[in-house]
Amino acid sequence: xxxxxxxxxxxxxxxxxxxxxxxxxxxxxxxxxxxxxxxxxxxxxxxxxxxxxxxxxxxxxxxxxxxxxxxxxxxxx
Length: 77
What we know:
The chain is 27% helix and 21% strand. By secondary structure, the protein is of the alpha+beta class. The chain has one domain (10-67). The strands form 2 sheets. A two-stranded antiparallel ribbon has the order 1-4. Strands 2-3 form a two-stranded antiparallel ribbon. A hairpin with a 4-residue loop joins β2 (21-23) and β3 (28-30). The chain is flat, with a radius of gyration of 17 Å.
């Protein structure tokens, strides 16, 4: 059995990681977010909200390592 290893061209960013937010002179925006639709049953919304607050659910963005905004955020550190 042969296993070839290559480096991935993607990186996963989580809330709080450098590069998770995008910034310009006017706004700060997240690369990813969680959306709960208005028609979601209220009891589900409360369960999801509690799970998120307790850390069971995370918001993650997958972006190319070559993303120029990611590189700029890392260089600014």
